[in-house]
Specification:
Rossmann fold; 6-stranded parallel sheet; 3 domains; single chain; alpha/beta
Length: about 575
């Protein structure tokens, strides 16, 4: 250990204390975590740090999903802590979830002491190597004197450029080493660059293409939300008169009540949005990476587009999936701010009339019922009663798509969902993080009966801390999205999808100390939902829905966007 002399303004403290002070210096409001042997010095330091807020989740995966929900809903960096070995590996799914969706997280893991590394010591795992493909950057702290700098750099890297998770792995002995504490306040990262400055020539070329187009369409993705550029997009759209289709992660980035919004496009996209893309002569992707759920059959995607433009912060995304004719690299907020100084109305009058006809001819629809609760009805009810003002988190499955289709998002950072990885078990812990980060907003967690059982243990912390999340379970007693694919693509050969042995969710909620409510028909549905909204604490509401209800429209794998199955009659 290095001997050093402290000045009167410095303190001689342990690595654990350095870590906690560093997190507070970065403005961290809450850390989600789970202790274990190799992070006990860190947890011991928390006892003497009253300003440090920590929430003990019931599983490490719950901790990282909660940190993720916090980050997505606030725009700040989410933080979680876990011990070495299984504690660290239990975070892997959450790290991959954040990485795929460009979510800024700082993940702190313990490790075995440096003197036994590489000996297969108890609970040793090389988490750096395990997570290398799914982190933006990783640090192994071998000297406590590096820790202040590493913490400061980690937050900077996570929340600049294309955002993403950064991992800090700290051996146990380092957390107990002492140093004269000096807060880090500068970042010098050789070779690392955040967002490049927009090139005016690139945007000028796009503006010229817009002037020449007659059927332009904008695809707005999650990058619009992450760049806090919704207002710039709204201004750009209203100036140019170009209609907007949003991706799943882009929902809320452009208001759903705006006349220029077409809806979500893609695999379960609406008719008007998909047909707009297929008939566009100019396609402009803003913060969307042209993933396969958006494009579907690549060689049939946007076949009439004379030019495809792509605005993105990450040069690696340009041309990766779809050939790009016009690229604008930079922070979307800055790119659109520049564009708005020169943008003019495009000649889209006839085009907008055609798209309006698409909306009228083929709106979202479902067959309602007075005897059973249709899931679409539940989402419409939630949307109407919250006026589109709530933060909505979802798990992954049919309920996720019904939410995307039937909830009307008005604001960015209002939909928290796992897009790229499609992680079951994500929705409910993410809602906890979102509520911690947004205590004055209503947070509704919408789950299927499958995903809810992957995270139900986190109801304990809702009860203990009185985190008033409204938990919705759409219970169809089946793995619905898997069933739908087996029905349509595997000739109804249903395999391993029966969830009829699931627990009584109302009793399960009550066992954790949370009010539980259930509805089996429409009349009960409205009554229990109103009761949930009027309840000050956390509530679980189970809506029993039909097993055979499917999500439409749907584009089958291997087919282009304009070959949609619109409903049961097809």
């Amino acid at each position: 250990m290095t001997n050093e002399t402290t000045t009167p303004s410095e303190e001689y403290i342990t690595g654990s204390e350095v870590l906690l002070r560093g997190l507070l210096q970065e403005g961290v409001e809450c850390v989600f975590g789970y202790p274990g042997g190799n992070v006990l010095y860190i947890y011991d330091a928390m006892v003497h740090q009253p300003d440090f807020k920590h929430i003990l989740t019931r599983h490490e995966q719950g901790a990282i999903h909660a940190a993720d929900g916090y980050a997505r809903s606030t725009g700040k960096v989410g933080v979680c802590i876990a011990t070495s070995g299984p504690g660290a590996t239990n975070l892997v799914t959450g790290i991959a979830t954040a990485y795929m969706d460009s979510v800024p997280l700082v993940i702190i893991t313990g490790n075995v002491s440096t003197n036994v590394m590489g000996t297969d010591a108890f609970q040793e795992a090389d988490i750096i190597s395990i997570t290398m493909p799914i982190t933006k950057h990783s640090y192994m702290v071998r000297d406590v004197h590096d820790l202040p700098r590493i913490i400061h750099e980690a937050f900077y890297i996570a929340n600049t450029g294309r955002k993403g998770p950064v991992l800090i792995d700290i051996p146990k002995d380092v957390t107990n080493q002492r140093m004269a504490y000096r807060p880090a306040d500068t970042v010098r990262l050789r070779g690392y660059h955040g967002a490049p400055e927009p090139n005016p020539a690139e945007m000028d070329a796009l503006l010229q293409a817009i002037a020449e187009a007659r059927k332009p369409v904008i695809i707005a993705g999650g990058g619009v939300v992450y760049a806090n550029s919704s207002q710039e997009l709204i201004k750009f759209v209203h100036t140019t008169r170009i209609p907007v289709a949003t991706t799943l992660l882009g929902l809320g980035g452009f208001p759903s009540d705006d006349e220029m919004w077409l809806g979500m496009l893609g695999h379960h996209g609406v008719y008007a949005a998909n047909m707009a893309v297929q008939n566009a002569d100019l396609l402009i992707s803003i913060g969307s990476r042209f993933d396969d759920r958006v494009t579907m059959k690549l060689d049939g995607f946007a076949p009439l587009a004379k030019r495809i433009a792509h605005i993105d912060i990450d040069p690696a995304e340009i041309g990766k999936n779809v050939k790009t004719d016009l690229a604008c690299i930079g922070d979307i907020k800055n790119v659109l701010a520049y564009a708005n100084t020169k943008a003019q109305a495009a000649q889209t009058g006839t085009w907008l009339e055609q798209l309006q006809e698409y909306k009228v001819q083929h709106p979202l629809r479902y067959t309602d019922s007075d005897t059973v609760i249709k899931p679409q009805y539940v989402l419409e009810m939630i949307s109407e009663t919250t006026q589109g003002e709530a933060i909505i988190t979802t798990d992954v499955g049919q309920h996720q798509m019904w939410t995307a289709q039937f909830y009307r998002f008005k604001h960015p950072r209002s939909l928290i969902t796992s897009g790229g990885l499609g992680t079951m078990g994500f929705g409910f812990p993410a809602a906890i993080g979102a509520k911690v980060g947004n205590p004055d907003r209503l947070v509704v967690s919408i789950n299927g009966d499958g995903g809810m059982q992957m995270c139900a243990q986190e109801m304990a912390i809702c009860a203990i801390h009185q985190i008033p999340v409204k938990i919705v379970v759409l219970n169809n007693q089946v793995l619905g999205m898997v069933k739908q694919q087996q029905e349509l693509m595997y000739e109804r050969r249903y395999s391993q999808i029966d969830l009829s042995g699931s627990p009584d969710f109302v009793k399960l909620a009550e066992a954790y100390g949370i009010k539980g409510l259930r509805a089996t028909n429409k009349d009960e549905a409205s009554k229990v939902w109103l009761e949930a909204l009027q309840t000050t604490g956390p509530v679980l509401v189970e809506f029993v829905i039909p097993t055979n209800e499917n999500v439409y429209p749907m584009v089958l794998a291997g087919t282009p966007l304009d070959q949609m199955i619109l409903g049961y009659d097809e």
